[in-house]
Amino acid sequence: MAARCCHPAPIYAKREVVTVATKRDKTGLTAKQRKIAETLVNPDFSGTVTSLCAQYNVARSTLYRWLEKAEFRNYLEGLVNQYANSELATVWKALIRRCAIGDVQAIRLYFDLRDRAHGVHDSGVKIVDDIPE
Predict the structure, then answer these.
(1) 20 to 30 A from 17, CA-CA: which of 1, 61, 100, 131?
(2) Does a structural domain hold residue 12?
(3) CA angle at residue 25 from 21 to 31, to 5 degrees?
(4) 46 found inside a domain
């Protein structure tokens, strides 16, 4: 007869393994890459690259490697343009309010932007009074 151990058999907790989908969409990026890019360009995000990487469990070197890839940078640029376009009306209204109260810099900016939109460029002509008196 075999000797019985007085200790009960150890109970091992089942470890849940979380897998992150690496399936790429039409952008060529994984869900994790898209999520990190969205966080990076979000105006409300004020963290560091280190905190961002820790939040998504990605090595900093991995993020920097992604930043070297054109598809990741293109996705970031597209997101930045989306944020900028969505805030354009708010910024424009703020500029008009500054112009209305007489802010000279705001007025200059307004006319500069208006001229650029209509294809008018400053010719760069400078008048120099070099006639001795």
Answers:
(1) 61
(2) no
(3) 40
(4) yes
- The pLDDT score that the predictor gives to residue 8 is 52
Backbone CA torsion sign across 78, 84, 88, 92? negative
pTM of the model: 0.56
- What backbone phi and psi angles, to 5 degrees, belong to 87? -100, 0
Confidence of residue 117 (pLDDT cuts 50, 70, 90): confident
pLDDT at 28: 83
Q: How far is CA 47 from CA 27, 40, 51, 127, in A?
A: 25, 9, 6, 49
CATH code of the domain covering residue 67: 1.10.10
Each residue of 87-106: b (16+ CB within 10 Å) or e?
eeeeeeeebeebbeeeeeeb
